[in-house]
Amino acid sequence: MQDKIYAMASKSSRGPIDLPGFFADLVRCETRLYNALNDRLRERHGIVTSQFEFLRFLRDHPGSRVADLATEFAIGIGATSKGIDRLEKQAWVIRRTNPSDRRSSLLDLTAAGLQLVEAAEATFTKALAELTADVLGGPSGPAAAQIFSELRSVLERDQIGLPTG
Questions:
Q1: For 77-135, how does the pLDDT look when each residue is reduced to its tens digit (9 = 90+)?
Q2: pTM exceeding the 0.70 threshold for the entire prediction
Q3: Whole-angstrom Cα distance, residue 133 to residue 82?
Q4: Largest CA distance in the chain
């Protein structure tokens, strides 16, 4: 299967794809975008991108468990729980006992958490649009977005890249 994937990825209308170069570009773009969004969110709302993503997920999936966030973001349960602890200390998230399994908690946003995520989402979306407009606003933008969506779907479907702990 890997040989088939490599052969398919190595052929394009413009010649072979440099897979290590593609990976480097992908990771460096993600890092630079994440850092820039961290800066903007910290400056305007006192949070960082990972906190915004947790808050947004909880807004869209009330009653989630720590394990649900860990799965969504492909990070460990311990790191996720510590992140939720920080949000809880700020009174943006509350934990309530899971009636189906008293060993776990269900997570919800507080009114302050909902207000924060709504304001931060406007900042986040505007900043991301500014950072990507030159490329994604061009004719290949929708195709690029579609390719990344498909790649993510395949990785998630096949449970690739999940943390071990």
A1: 999 999 999 999 999 999 999 999 888 899 999 999 999 999 999 999 999 999 999 99
A2: yes
A3: 34
A4: 57
- 3-class secondary-structure state, position 158: coil
Q: What domains appear along the chain, each with residue ranges and CATH number?
A: 18-132 (1.10.10.10)
Buried b or exposed e, range 133-142, using 16+ CB within 10 angstroms: eeeeeeeeee
Owner of token pair 């949000």: 87
pLDDT in tens, 39-57: 999 999 999 999 999 999 9
b/e map 144-160, b = 16+ CB within 10 Å: eeeeeeeeeeeeeeeee
CA distance 132 to 8: 28
What is the three-class DSSP state of 9? helix
Q: Name 161's Cβ contacts closer than 8 Å, sequence gap at least 6.
A: 74, 155
DSSP 120-132: HHHHHHHHHHHHH
CA–CA dist 49, 53 (Å, integer): 6
Number of other CB atoms surrounding residue 33 within 10 Å: 15
In what helix (H) or strand (E) does residue 52 lie, and over which residues does it extend?
helix 49-60
DSSP E strands: which ranges in the chain? 93-97, 105-109
